[in-house]
């Protein structure tokens, strides 16, 4: 008697979408090369590191008295998350996500132009600012996205309009793609995550293992502020106020940068091209960190997107041109409420 045989069906690999290919390409070309040529911080330095209170944080009570900004926190110790908040729960919620080597206070210049229209939430992302840092936890973009979604649920926020700058832009995009029920509209400002047709000298240096976003002394801090600001006066002012904090955080920031690049987003899950909500892609034409051509990649990939460019502005539009930046955000978000 002949035995019946069952022919196994051949499993074809799942086609990789254009958006997934671009995300993977970005982390392949930049991330892998940087990690190969750079050195991780010593574990004991991370274990023994303790945060300090710096000048920008000390300004919070003064600034809060002027525009009604209040400091909030949830959790304790290394698991705490601290944020600034203004407005009422009855207003549409605007979630502002800072970038790498930044903090919640970097959004304060645009708050006076948005207060009264929105409930504004400005968190220190986990690991940054006053929020807890734990060297035994993971700080990839996906890890941070999940933490943000969990935090919003914990504080009873079920709908947001999310704005993210640089690293925060990548988180805003992933939050929108992975948790579409949470997001009404999104603004991706000089966002990390997709390559452009051209890349900057900063990216060239990353390929060789050099990272200007992690200064190790005051001279390096000046190089960093010159990198992120087109306005030289603002660069000098920012260096003065942030030098102590940035140098103190050098080992932690080195760890967080390596985490961000080594734990790449899973492109089998939703990424930027899966964003279905209205999205404003915002960029400074003089961005020396992420080339303005990246903005066109985002605009082309995201179906319901618009492009807003600011002339003579660098990597941080919310600080260099706060009024124009706030007006663009306000107009776009209110149009899609």
Automatic annotation (TrEMBL):
This is Alpha/beta hydrolase. The lineage of its organism: Bacteria, Pseudomonadati, Pseudomonadota, Betaproteobacteria, Burkholderiales. The keyword Glycosyltransferase does not apply. Gene3D superfamilies: alpha/beta hydrolase (3.40.50.1820). It comes from the Bacteria. Residues 92-320 form the AB hydrolase-1 domain. InterPro entries: AB_hydrolase_1 (IPR000073), AB_hydrolase_fold (IPR029058), AB_hydrolase_sf (IPR050266). The keyword Hydrolase applies. Keywords: Hydrolase.
């Amino acid at each position: 008697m002949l035995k019946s045989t069952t022919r196994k069906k051949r499993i074809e690999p799942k086609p990789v979408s254009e958006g997934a290919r671009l995300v993977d390409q970005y982390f392949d070309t930049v991330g892998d090369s940087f990690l190969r040529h750079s050195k991780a911080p010593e574990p004991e330095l991370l274990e023994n590191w303790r945060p300090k209170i710096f000048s920008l944080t000390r300004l919070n009570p003064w600034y809060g008295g002027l525009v009604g900004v209040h400091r909030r926190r949830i959790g304790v110790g290394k698991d705490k998350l601290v944020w600034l908040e203004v407005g009422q729960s009855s207003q549409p919620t605007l979630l502002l996500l800072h970038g790498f080597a930044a903090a919640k206070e970097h959004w304060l210049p645009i708050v006076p132009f948005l207060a009264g229209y929105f409930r504004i939430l400005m968190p220190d992302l986990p690991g940054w600012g006053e929020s807890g840092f734990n060297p035994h936890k993971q700080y990839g973009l996906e890890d941070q996205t999940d933490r943000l979604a969990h935090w919003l649920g914990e504080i009873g926020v079920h709908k947001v309009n999310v704005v993210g700058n640089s690293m925060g832009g990548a988180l805003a995009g992933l939050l929108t793609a992975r948790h579409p029920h949470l997001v009404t509209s999104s603004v991706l400002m000089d966002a990390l995550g997709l390559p452009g047709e051209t890349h900057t000298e900063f990216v060239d240096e990353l390929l060789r293992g050099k990272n200007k976003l992690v200064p190790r002394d005051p001279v390096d801090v000046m190089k960093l502020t010159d990198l992120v600001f087109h306005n030289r006066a603002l660069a000098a002012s920012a260096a003065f106020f942030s030098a102590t904090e940035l140098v103190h955080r050098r080992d932690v920031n080195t760890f967080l940068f390596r985490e961000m690049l080594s734990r790449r987003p899973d492109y089998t899950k939703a990424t930027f091209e899966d964003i279905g909500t209205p999205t404003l892609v915002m960029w400074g034409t003089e961005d020396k960190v992420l080339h303005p051509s990246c903005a066109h990649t985002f605009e082309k990939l995201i179906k319901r997107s618009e492009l807003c460019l600011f002339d003579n502005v660098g990597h941080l539009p919310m600080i260099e041109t706060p009024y124009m930046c706030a007006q663009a955000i306000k107009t776009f978000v209110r149009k899609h409420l």
